[in-house]
Design goal:
CATH architecture of the largest domain: 3-Layer(aba) Sandwich
CATH superfamily of the largest domain: HAD superfamily/HAD-like
Structural class: alpha/beta
Helix content: 40-55%
CATH class of the largest domain: Alpha Beta
Strand order of the largest sheet: 5-4-1-6-7-8
Shape: globular
Number of domains: 2
Strand content: 5-15%
Number of strands: 8
Radius of gyration: 17 Å
Length: 211
């Protein structure tokens, strides 16, 4: 039985890849890079925004730090474009009604709480950990280890839910259950390291145990 859920945000609870991709397109055009939306989405889903920006930095000769700050500015302006993943609110509410606790660990920064509040789900979470708290990024499990220790979570009853392989590796590094949210149209495919693969978030309402 799972009693604690730590959630990734972008692509897991928040349907934000459209905003992320368009923001990266803008930054790319400004430094002479013209990757297609499909290429950018695949890079972000199979890696991370930071990794894609580092690659852009290497190609363009622009400093990574400047590209990252520009991306944050552009993406913050597009928060209104982001919506909830279908079934997110129902899943959070249903699991909480059974006594589960919810947490967030995301690479997103200062816009996280604002986004969760706008989406109407901020109150579900006991604690929200973001990039700005300084933990080593995924696939490190440091942020999850912090939540486990601070809140006395049992590893065998805790899952990290995310939509990328980097989330699975983060869960494994922290010693918790790895749940891969993998919709049918995802460019990410299970690789066998997951404890559970779901196509819909609501599947968690009927998959609370692991063999």
């Amino acid at each position: 039985m799972l009693t604690s859920y730590i959630w990734d945000l972008d692509g897991t609870l928040a349907d934000s890849y459209g905003s992320i991709v368009s923001s990266l397109e803008t930054v790319g055009r400004e430094c002479g890079e013209e990757d297609s939306p499909e290429t950018i989405l695949r890079a972000v889903k199979q890696g991370a925004v930071s990794a894609y920006l580092r690659e852009m930095s290497a190609r363009s000769g622009r400093k990574y730090e400047l590209l990252y700050q520009r991306y944050r500015t552009v993406s913050h302006e597009r928060l209104e474009e982001i919506t909830l993943i279908p079934g997110a609110e129902r899943t959070l509410r249903g699991l909480k009604s059974r006594g589960a606790r919810h947490f967030v660990y995301t690479h997103r920064g200062g816009s996280t709480l604002q986004l969760l509040e706008r989406l109407g789900i901020a109150d579900f979470f006991t604690e929200i950990v973001t990039f700005e708290q300084g933990f080593r990024p995924k696939p490190s499990g440091d942020a999850l280890a912090y939540l486990i220790q601070k809140h006395g979570l049992k590893k065998t009853e805790t899952a990290y839910v995310g939509d990328r392989r980097i989330d699975v590796l983060c869960a494994k590094a922290a010693g918790v259950r790895a749940v891969l949210y993998c919709p049918k149209d995802s460019c990410v495919q299970p690789e066998g390291e997951e404890d559970l693969v779901i196509e819909r978030l609501e599947d968690l309402l009927s998959c609370e145990t692991f063999e």
